[in-house]
Amino acid sequence: MPLLENGQIKEDNWQVAIEGEALPSGDVLVPLARLSEGLGRNNDGRLGVVLNAGDSVEELRSALPRLSSIQVTFPIFRDGRPFTQARALREHLHFEGEIRAGGHILPDQYEFLLRCGVNSVVVPEGVDAAVWQKAHETFSVAYQPSVLNEQPEGFAFRRKLL
Amino acid sequence: MDRRNNRRDAEGSSVITANRLLDGRIVWLAADGQWSPHIRNARVYSNVEIEDALKEQTASAQDNELVGVYGVQVSLSPTGPVPVTSRECIRAGGPSVHPDFTPEWQERPAVSPA
Amino acid sequence: MSHAPHSSLPVGHYAYDEVDRTFLKQRVAQFRDQVERRISGALTEEEFKPLRLMNGLYLQLHAYMLRVAIPYGVLNSGQMRTLAQIAQRYDRDYGHFTTRQNIQFNWIKLEDTPDILALLADADMHALQTSGNCIRNVTADQFAGAAADEVIDPRIHAEILRQWSTLHPEFTFLPRKFKIAISGSPQDRVAARFHDIGLMARKDENGRAVFEVYVGGGLGRTPIVGVKLRDDLPEEDLIAYLEAILRVYNEFGRRDNIYKARIKILVQALGVQEFRNRVNAEFVAMDRARYRLDEKIVAAIQARFGVPDFDPAGQAAEKLIQQRKADRAFDFWVRTNTHAHKQPGYVSVTISCKPAGGIPGDVTSAQMNLLADLADQLSFGELRITHLQNVVLGHVRQDKLYALWQTLDQNGLGTANVGFISDIVACPGLDYCALANARSIPIAQKLSERFASPELQREIGPLRLNISGCINACGHHHAGHIGILGVDKRGEEAFQITLGGAADQDTVSIGQIIGAAMSEDETVDAIARIIDTYLARRTAGEQFIDTCRRLGTAPFKDAAYAPA
């Protein structure tokens, strides 16, 4: 499926590990259970991890310097755990690589994802990027700080978004 | 959807209800296929046949601008179907604490904005 | 003598600036777009539901219901007039004050809702987060900024929490709803220990706020009294610590069962110590500087609250004494419906929205407009909604009380029953609510008529009677000295009675069910016999709840189920 990043739809060049099959060469995303297998590859491309909503990001701590991408996954859009995972990856683990969000996500959640440190979203084929961009541009102010460290807007915890 | 909305006996009769998407008001599926605000117009199904009818109506709910299609068990009276539960009687007749707010209640002419 | 605010700032609540107004307009535009996408079918009902709920829009039994936020229960006269306008133009000419200090309208159309939200935004109001699995409207003491026993005005911190929780990126899809209450008096008037988080503010030796933090309380299906997590949380860590609690809840709270998803279940499952350890681990690890609640922030928010410009007391108190002597009915109303003010010559007035036979918490648009006028004339344009579904004028000069009472009495708002058995808290129940099992309003009406006599109510004394139409407990039945819970007996309505609940911080307790459910009329009679038992068995000066605690429920149960 394509990726939405910075308002653009682009092709996703990462492969996702297929259960029961050997890891392919090239850039590959593995589930947490196959992390050590992924780490054991011989410079075969970049490595990423797909987290389930119930996984603890702490388990990635030692492997983090070798990870280029981490996907947080929404089993359903109402399950908000991936927001906490993404924010923790940035705030606690200081992860600077790509955080992508996958699974069932509404455009209406896009700005929340960005403010929790997600930078790309796995979207269905044929999605209208304009709807997501519009969601990103809906608000010019937020009422609390985020890992993006936006500029203050006036007083208190208000932050400029646009 | 609340489980109570689908609680029906194996036997007996039911009618089909929903809320209109745009204004939320309660409607009942009538014999002519239209949705009426009045339960007295509702088509009565035997509970044997209602599941198929519900499936069909649920599938077309978006096209008909309806939400929450479900079946309501009724008994039959000379004035039409009467729901067997208090809940559905209140849905059919309006809140008991405002006797004027029946399904016949009409909005007063719109007040022009001040 | 004018009581108009002396500055342009509204008294008692935060004054919006252009940034806040722009935000609300953007929020309205966003919802307008979401409604269009729903109608076009681009959003399914399942996807749309959480989005509309986070704008306060429910689909209830007969129509959509819109719940409008009244942050910490405070609004100004202009805002009250806007609510009256909505009632008149978009609803059936009335509104219902809720147990979260909000107001809800029962006959709203989805297609009108964006316009209603725009009207609210023009009055600096919104319906943000009045529903949904997010941080809900923060509630506060209805006598904030006025009560003689107050240490800190909790509304400043309630506003800070309101802003911080508004469209919080991480906490908008929590396992379940999340309710915070804050009190700034040693006397808990917010039921702090029945909240997901309850905050009791006091001052440290330097005059800065510190907070007792209670967590994991709540009513509903599993009533639990909150436990103390911190005794002395410094003000500057307030946001960071709440972030830590919410992070732990968002990560570990159950999502497999809606009835076990509240934070209270997580606290019980982990145990208080383990829960505290996880919160502390998060708190220690987090970027505390980012969330530090600096004194400057508190000052900046406080600076946007208008304060009343009180007149000298003069002879106000003496005049009131004379008027009370001259009119016994007035004297009784003053005794029940006023609360001591810190400013000499002033009191806070609780206006009862519970007339005998009335619908608890319902007011007509005409009454809303009257309340707005009275607020302008007598209380610096400020009004408060209480979590017990009444209205408070916070700052009324004592020599204005008599005229106020007469006006209220002529308009169905003069009932002298605050804190008495007919000051009933009731949810909308099965007359309106899609979740309810039984109607709450008709039984409330029968009870308030049964105990309408002022003499009888005075004889009975302080008594909290709360009614919920289902186990979700929006009517807080477990917190009532007497509680009534509506149940569904094979499609028929029935009612259980609970006894011994109380929401006060130090003596908090959960009401216990005394026996099998009864019909509406049987329940009303049973409660009358419970009251008779209390009157017969009490010691001198003993209040109902104390007799209940002393004797246990057995004698009351015997009376309730005695053959007629």
TrEMBL record, chain A:
Taxonomic superkingdom: Bacteria
Q: What InterPro entries is this protein classified in?
A: UCP030820
* Protein name per UniProt: Oxidoreductase
What species was this sequence derived from? Answer: Acetobacter tropicalis
**Could you read off the lineage of the organism from its UniProt record?**
Bacteria, Pseudomonadati, Pseudomonadota, Alphaproteobacteria, Acetobacterales
From TrEMBL, chain B:
Q: Name one Pfam family in it.
A: DUF2849
The annotated region (Disordered) lies at 93-114
Name the domain of life this protein comes from.
Bacteria
Q: Which InterPro entries match?
A: DUF2849
Please state what the protein is called: DUF2849 domain-containing protein
Automatic annotation (TrEMBL), chain C:
Q: Name one GO molecular function term.
A: metal ion binding
**UniProt keywords, alphabetically:** 4Fe-4S, Heme, Iron, Iron-sulfur, Metal-binding, Oxidoreductase
What are the residue boundaries of the Nitrite/Sulfite reductase ferredoxin-like domain, all occurrences included?
Answer: 64-122, 340-409
Q: Which Pfam families match?
A: NIR_SIR (PF01077), NIR_SIR_ferr (PF03460)
Report the superkingdom from the record.
Answer: Bacteria
Can the keyword Cytoplasm be found in this entry's annotation? no
Nitrite/sulphite reductase 4Fe-4S domain residues are 131-282, 423-559
Name under which the protein is recorded: Sulfite reductase
